[in-house]
């Protein structure tokens, strides 16, 4: 019933995380163009940077695990 490989769950999570990062970046670009930046825009940018780094590290970890 349950998946014996926990890395399979992480592999399914990576595309979802990618979609969330793209949507959040799109929102930030739209807010920038519309001159409606929220007051907390530095936190949004920081969250985008952190999420991007997390996505990269997770992706590299999963690729190395699949190869070796």
Outline of this structure?
The chain has 68 residues and is mainly alpha-helical. The chain has helices at 6-33, 41-67. The chain has two helices and no strands.
Question: Could you explain how this protein is built, in words?
Answer:
81% of the residues lie in helices and 0% in strands. It has 2 helices and no strands. α1 packs antiparallel against α2 (41-67). The protein is elongated.
Layout: helices, strands, pairs:
Blueprint: H1 6-33, H2 41-67
Helix pairs in contact: 1-2
List keywords for this structure.
mainly alpha, 2 helices, 81% helix, elongated, 68 residues
Q: In total, how many beta strands? A: 0
Roughly how much helix do the residues carry, as a percent range?
over 70%
Mean pLDDT: 85
Q: Which residue ranges are poorly predicted, with pLDDT under 50 across at least 5 consecutive positions?
A: none
Q: Strand percentage, roughly? A: under 5%
Termini Cα gap: 26 Å
Shape: elongated
Biggest beta sheet summary: none
Number of helices: 2
Radius of gyration: 16 Å
**Structural class, from secondary structure content?**
mainly alpha
